[in-house]
Write a structure and sequence with these properties.
This protein is of the alpha/beta class. It is built from 15 helices and 13 strands.
Length: 389
């Protein structure tokens, strides 16, 4: 059984890590030949391409497959993908992300690929963009859905949003949590040397945030809540793991507000190093306004760190209010402040929520479980078409 995955770019991010883990995991399955196609990886977000080289993955870059809408490049990417599919003759094309999801699926149908799967890692439309943008993306997603055999969603929230927009039928959807290697997070410790290196004292209360520093990721709200949190807890530190186009803006804001010593910017951190940084956090704040199922939430919970999250998209499916953390309505800075202060003052509550979250993640987010679920889905769809591994 030949399976070709297509993604827009391989930056350091949840959808990309999910895709790489899936490809590498499927390579180890008997009777499966796997290929991966991506557009060019450029920018401040880093690259996962080296992990593919280490795994000896069959990997192709299509330079015209770019994230932004570009009619000429999109047409050329469509034709190039079609030609690659005709050459590789995959039984299954499995697409990821917005642009690759649309162009890749249409190219697969033009090439006569028997089975087309698309994973919805996050919404391509919603109240985070204007009406015209929503109209265009909904129309494009409906067109691509007409040639899609099955959808994988990382959270039920994605299924509900897409069905409400008239995309696909309920029986076409399967939820598979975005798994990751659990052991590095289960084994974390409070690394005092790392704290010292970052200028964080042993007794400081650390609120962590793992996200690309860009719009819709919620850094604005964390900065807005910071003065009140510092007044109530002068030993608080905000650990911002990640990089992005807005980093300079927030570094300036930290200085201008007189809170520079309370904010720590790590810059880009490789996926392998993320557990070490999670280990020195006391709580994770996830304030993004656009996610499928935020990968940072199960990663923090795997390390037994409680979470505070905005109730957006799939966050409520991992941040179980009062069980693994606190779920907050987007923009409710008063409640955000109260919950962080409550956690800062109650170590037993942090331990209770963290342990509950860790148990939940153990049961649901092992990377092996994700790969097995995707593999079994591929076998099922292939069997229905008379394709044998």
């Amino acid at each position: 059984m030949r399976v070709t995955h297509v993604i827009t770019r391989l930056i350091v991010g949840g959808a990309q890590e999910n895709t790489v883990a899936t490809v590498v995991g499927l390579q180890k399955k008997s009777g499966v030949e796997v290929n991966l196609i991506s557009g060019p990886t450029i920018g401040l977000e880093g690259s996962l391409e080296s992990s593919l080289q280490a795994a000896n993955t069959n990997f192709t870059i299509v330079p015209e497959l770019v994230r932004r809408i570009h009619p000429l490049k999109d047409f050329l990417a469509l034709r190039k993908l079609e030609n690659i599919f005709r050459e590789q003759k995959p039984d299954i094309v499995h697409t990821h992300s917005g642009k690759a999801g649309i162009v890749g699926r249409l190219a697969a149908r033009r090439a006569g690929v028997p089975i087309i799967i698309h994973t919805i890692h996050g919404p391509s439309f919603g109240n985070f963009q204007n009406g015209l943008g929503n109209f265009i993306f909904r129309a494009a997603e409906r067109r691509a859905a007409s040639v899609t055999d099955h959808f994988i969603v990382v959270a039920d929230a994605m299924k509900n949003q897409y069905l409400a927009a008239g995309i696909g039928q309920p029986e076409q959807y399967t939820k598979i949590f975005s798994g990751f290697p659990l052991e590095p997070f289960l084994a974390v410790r409070n690394d005092l040397e790392l704290r010292k290196k970052l200028g964080i004292a042993t007794d400081d209360f650390v609120v962590g945030k793992i996200a690309r520093i860009f719009k819709l990721k919620g850094h604005d709200d964390l900065f807005a809540a910071a003065p009140g949190l510092v007044r109530q807890n002068p030993e608080i530190k905000f650990l911002l793991v990640g990089d992005g186009p807005w980093r300079g803006r927030f570094e300036h804001l930290a200085k201008a507000s007189g809170l520079e010593k309370h904010f720590v910017f790590t810059g880009l951190v490789s996926p392998a190093e993320v557990p070490r940084y999670v280990g020195i956090m006391d709580v994770l704040a996830h304030l993004s306004l656009r996610e499928g199922l935020p990968r940072a939430l199960p990663q923090a919970l795997a390390a037994a760190k409680p979470v505070v999250a905005y109730d957006c998209d799939g966050a409520r499916e991992i941040c179980l209010n009062g069980q693994t953390g606190f779920l907050i309505q987007p923009g409710d800075l008063k409640n955000l402040t109260e919950k962080i202060v409550q956690l800062a003052g109650d170590s037993e509550l942090r331990k209770k929520l963290g342990e509950s979250g860790q148990n939940f993640v153990r049961e649901n987010f092992a990377v092996e479980k994700m790969v097995d679920a995707i593999y079994n889905l591929c076998l099922k769809l292939a069997a229905e078409r008379g394709i044998r591994p």
